[in-house]
Design goal:
InterPro entries: DDE_SF_endonuclease_dom. There is one protein chain. This protein is mostly helical and about 140 residues long. The longest helix has 26 residues. The chain is flat and about 70 Å long. The protein has one domain. Helix content is about 60%, strand content about 0%.
């Protein structure tokens, strides 16, 4: 079991023996752990950015399921590289395959088939053009 305070138990178990990992080994033994944390931090950052933009403009932030999915899509697109690195370090993906994926992505970017989705407006949030227009009006 992971060594965290929620997993500590004082029960006497006759038929079960619990073994805990040493402290600070989760990230080394579970390579996706860092990417999961990175994803969560990225989502919180996008949510906070949207909140700050809406506060400046003077509108209430409303996040529905579709809006959350749009934000998660943007975060996932930015986390993909660290996820790929985790799989490569865990030897799930060979260096050859990893290199060919990089080359393929570079070719797509060079030929204009790669579309950046940095900011995706969603219901309840102003578009970037609306934000810029309202800030200029002030």
């Amino acid at each position: 079991m992971d060594n965290c305070s929620a997993n500590q138990t004082t029960c006497e178990l006759d038929n079960i023996e619990l073994k805990f990992l040493p402290p600070n080994t989760t990230a080394r033994l579970q390579p996706l752990d860092r990417s999961i944390k990175s994803f969560k931090v990225g989502y919180r950052r996008r949510l906070l950015d949207r909140l700050l933009i809406n506060l400046r403009v003077g509108t209430e932030l409303k996040v529905d399921q579709l809006g959350a999915i749009h934000m998660m899509t943007g975060v996932w697109n930015s986390v993909k590289q660290s996820v790929a690195n985790c799989f490569r370090k865990a030897d799930f993906v060979t260096a050859e395959l990893f290199g060919s994926l990089r080359r393929r992505r570079r070719r797509r970017i060079r030929h204009g088939r790669h579309v950046s989705r940095a900011v995706v407006p969603f219901p309840g949030c102003c578009s970037s053009q609306t934000v810029c227009r309202r800030l200029r009006e002030r």
